[in-house]
Amino acid sequence: MDSKSISTFLLLRLGRGSSFTGYVWWLSLLLWFAMIAPVQAAIELRVAIEKNASQVRVGSSTVALVRDGAGRVLGQLTPENGFDAKPGNNGVVLQNQWQAPQLWIEPTQGGYVWIGDRWYRGRTLLLSTQQRLTAVNYVDLEQYLYSVLGSEMSSNWPPEALKAQAVVARSYALYQRKKASDRPYDLGDTTRWQVYTGIDKEALTTQSAVTATAGQVVTYNGNIIEAVFHSSSGGHTENSENVWVKPLPYLQGVPDFDQGTPGFQWVKNFSNEELRSKLPGLGKIRTLEVQRQSPFGRVMSIKVVGDAGARVMKGDNLRAVLGLRSTLFTITPQLTSSTGKGSKISPAIFQLNGRGYGHGLGLSQWGAYNMALMGYNYQQIVLYYYKGTVLAKAEVQY
C-alpha cells in the first residue's frame, strides 16, 4: 500500500413541502416535535468489515496505537503503510510483531483506519476465532451514516430523499445494535445489512443529510423499528407477513411512487438448459407454475416441473438461485416443436417479466427519490412508508 494510493483514497469527494396525509400527518409531526430531546452523547457502532478471513491488511493514515484487549499499548503503526494481521495460536498476530487474543488499532489526531481495501473512520478491533480473523470497525454512528448514504443512494439525489435514507438507516443500525448481544459486532457492511464502504462514498450532501436529521429514528409504540428498505417495489410495497411470515404493523404495503425509474421494470430470459443447470435433478423443465402469490403479485411459492421430477420452492429461494431482482414477476414460456412421437413439448425459453428490485418492504429508495422531486419532505416520506410510526430522538442505551 504506497503513499500515492493512500493519498488518493484519503481524498473525500466533498465535492415546497406538500401535506398529503391530512390529520394523520399533522398529528405525527406534532408528536415528533414533542419527543425531540437535546442531542445525546455519541453512539459508537461496531461494523464487521472482514469476517472469517485468513488474513486482513490494516493500516492508518496517522500514527496509530496498537493495544491489547486490556488496553495496554503494545506499540505503534507508522502512517500510510500496510500491515498484515493473521490468526495465531494465541489470538491475533500483527506483522509478526504483536500478538494477543484481541488487538486494537487506534489512529491518533483524528486519522483513518485501513481495513482490507478501504479507508474508514474510527478504530479497528481484530479478533481471532477458530483460526479465522474478524476485523470490526468501531465508528461514531453519525459518521458511519455519511458513508451508508453514499453507498445506498447516489450522493447527488434530492436532499429530502437523502435525509429520509439517513433516518431509516440510523433506525436500522440501532435496531440491529440492540439485538446484537450474542456477537462481537452490531451489523455487517453488505446488502445483507446495509451497505457501508468507508470514506470513499462520503460527500458534502450525505454529511449534510445526516447532520440535518441528527439522532432522529423511526419508532412504533416507543420502540425503534426494524426499518428495512429496498431499491424499488415495482408499484406497491409489501406486507411483512408475505416476505418474513411474521406480520409487523409498520411494515404494511402502500402504493409506491417508483414508476418510470431504472428499477421499475425488468426482463430476464432463461434457456431450458440454463434452468436445468441451476435447478438440478429435475431434467428438462416443462413448466414453472406459481402456487401462491401475495395480494400485490409477488411470488411466494412456485412449482418447477421437469421430465425427471418436480420441486416446490419459495419465491425468495428461486430469486436467489436465478439471480432475479425481485419476486414480482410473471412467466411467459416460449414453446418449440416436440422431437418425437408422443413426446411432450418443452419450452426452449422461459421469459420472466418483472418489476421492482428488492424484497419490497419499507422505504422504496426510488419511490423516495420521486417523492422528493414532487416536493414531499423527508418526514412525510418516512412516515408514508412505515405506517403508524413516529419520528423521535434515539436513546443513548440503544
Describe the structure.
- This protein folds into 3 domains: 171 residues, no CATH class; 98 residues, no CATH class; 91 residues, no CATH class.
- The protein has 9 helices and 23 strands.
- The chain has a 6-stranded antiparallel beta sheet with strand order 1-12-11-8-3-4.
- A hairpin with a 3-residue loop joins strand 6 and strand 7.
- Helix 3 crosses helix 4, helix 4 crosses helix 5 and helix 4 runs antiparallel to helix 8.
- It is globular.
- The chain starts with a helix and ends in a 5-residue tail after the last strand.
Number of strand elements: 23
The strand order across the widest sheet is 1-12-11-8-3-4
Total count of helical runs of at least 4 residues: 9
Low-confidence stretches: 1-40
What percent of the residues sit in helical stretches (DSSP H or I)? 10-25%
Give Rg in angstroms.
Answer: 24 Å
Backbone shape: globular
Give the CA-CA distance, first to last residue: 37 Å
Number of domains: 3
Write the SSE topology:
Elements: H1 3-10, H2 22-35, E1 44-53, E2 56-60, E3 64-68, E4 73-77, E5 83-88, E6 91-94, E7 98-100, E8 102-107, E9 113-115, E10 118-120, E11 123-129, E12 132-140, H3 141-152, H4 159-178, H5 204-212, E13 216-220, E14 223-224, E15 229-230, E16 265-271, H6 272-278, E17 285-293, E18 299-306, E19 309-314, H7 315-322, E20 329-335, E21 347-355, E22 363-364, H8 365-374, H9 378-385, E23 390-393
Parallel strand pairs: 15-22
Antiparallel strand pairs: 1-12, 2-5, 2-9, 3-4, 3-8, 5-6, 6-7, 8-11, 9-10, 11-12, 13-14, 13-23, 16-21, 17-18, 18-19, 20-21
Helix pairs in contact: 3-4, 3-5, 4-5, 4-8, 4-9
